[in-house]
Amino acid sequence: MGIKNKTLRWILPSCLKPSITHKMDSRIHVTIHSSNSRISLFDISDPASPLCLSDLSNSKLSSNLHVFTHSELKLITSDFSSVNFLGEGGFGPVHKGFVDDKCRPGLAPQPVAVKLLDPDGDQGHREWLTEVVFLGQLKHPHLVKLVGYCCEDEHRLLVYEYMARGNLENHLFRRYTLLAWETRIKIALGAARGLAFLHGEEKPVIYRDFKTSNILLDSDYNAKLSDFGLAKDGPEGDETHVSTRIMGTHGYAAPEYVMTGHLTTKNDVYSFGVVLLELLTGRRATDKKRPPREQNLADWAKPYLKDHHKLDSITDQRLEGQYSCEGARRVAALAHQCLSHSPKTRPAMSHVVKILELIAQLRDAPFVYIAPAQGRADNEHKEDEEEDEDKGKAKKETGRKQRRKGGYRHKHPIPIRAHGVYTDTHLYRAFKNEIIGVRIEGR
């Protein structure tokens, strides 16, 4: 079964849209644990169980979440006005609102993001419940905070903390924005810490839909994971994997999961490797607008990752060389490990965090070559030649002066030996008197 471009839905009869009626009374059994134990999705059975959803308020979730009415959420979002519209995903539209202690006693004044379940969307009641169960209990600086929820008649809403900068996808792929290299590493590190926390839980959590659109950013570009509708409790004990229906987003899902449906934490590691590539290259995980061989980012980029001589050709050109060369090489090597076809050879997310922490500390200055203007380059070259010529003339003149003061020719004259006559001049000098006498006698 293939994976669609959009997030797929669970195909469970009890969770589909038709079951969400105007007078819906979803009955979901929740096993009540001790205060130190986390409620798992395994503890939630068929909706035909005797306990109602309202019994969630008797569990550990009651101390962490606020239960809102639909009318209250309409009020704080100005009736879900288009002015407060933030965006839309597979779950449904998201609107901005504002809550304080007037809305709920003890609730700190804060902006919030209210997400509505779209009856015609890709997700349903089951995904909504999954978010409530996981985010109602899991607390970490790099997981988005769930403030509360609404379950009233057919309405299913979630109330999150407001993230001022939206999601990573919008920042990374918009033409008029550019994320600096240091910011990209900061975001990658924050997201990695969030995944490492989930995988390190006593009951491991597999995120299953890690992608740029699910990474939210606050005003300081701190990354937080959101949208836990597809999250799944990981294998426990001697189990090696969890068998599930194939769900996720095309381009991010690990190949072994697509082929078998076997889910492990290493599937998240593969998805993280794809996001690392997106941060490194500035390209989307899948892009149908590119040539056929370049449409799948992981397949196209992987051969370049181990050759640092070719790395510049795939690094985001919008950075214009303003990045750590050593950092880029290490990010490429880490992405290559995460994208290994063998799940066993992929690193654990705790190890990924350590590597990214080291990369974040790198401060090697990027090499930036600025080509001079042609006229200026020619003038500089001409000036260099003239300077070399002047130096050569000065050197020759110095040599002449030294020879005039006392060169080898004057200091050590060649002696003329008596028995050696070498030129006509010497011959004339030697026999001058005899030659003159012969001429006089001849007259």
From TrEMBL:
<dbReference type="InterPro" id="IPR008271">
    <property type="entry name" value="Ser/Thr_kinase_AS"/>
</dbReference>
<dbReference type="InterPro" id="IPR050823">
    <property type="entry name" value="Plant_Ser_Thr_Prot_Kinase"/>
</dbReference>
<dbReference type="InterPro" id="IPR001245">
    <property type="entry name" value="Ser-Thr/Tyr_kinase_cat_dom"/>
</dbReference>
<keyword id="KW-1003">Cell membrane</keyword>
<keyword id="KW-0472">Membrane</keyword>
<feature type="region of interest" description="Disordered">
    <location>
        <begin position="374"/>
        <end position="412"/>
    </location>
</feature>
<comment type="function">
    <text>May be involved in plant defense signaling.</text>
</comment>
<dbReference type="GO" id="GO:0004674">
    <property type="term" value="F:protein serine/threonine kinase activity"/>
</dbReference>
<dbReference type="InterPro" id="IPR011009">
    <property type="entry name" value="Kinase-like_dom_sf"/>
</dbReference>
<dbReference type="Pfam" id="PF07714">
    <property type="entry name" value="PK_Tyr_Ser-Thr"/>
</dbReference>
<keyword id="KW-0547">Nucleotide-binding</keyword>
<keyword id="KW-0808">Transferase</keyword>
<dbReference type="GO" id="GO:0005524">
    <property type="term" value="F:ATP binding"/>
</dbReference>
<feature type="domain" description="Protein kinase">
    <location>
        <begin position="80"/>
        <end position="368"/>
    </location>
</feature>
<keyword id="KW-0067">ATP-binding</keyword>
<dbReference type="GO" id="GO:0005886">
    <property type="term" value="C:plasma membrane"/>
</dbReference>
<protein>
    <recommendedName>
        <fullName>non-specific serine/threonine protein kinase</fullName>
        <ecNumber>2.7.11.1</ecNumber>
    </recommendedName>
</protein>
<keyword id="KW-0723">Serine/threonine-protein kinase</keyword>
<feature type="compositionally biased region" description="Basic residues">
    <location>
        <begin position="401"/>
        <end position="412"/>
    </location>
</feature>
<dbReference type="InterPro" id="IPR000719">
    <property type="entry name" value="Prot_kinase_dom"/>
</dbReference>
<comment type="similarity">
    <text>Belongs to the protein kinase superfamily. Ser/Thr protein kinase family.</text>
</comment>
<keyword id="KW-0418">Kinase</keyword>
<feature type="compositionally biased region" description="Basic and acidic residues">
    <location>
        <begin position="390"/>
        <end position="400"/>
    </location>
</feature>
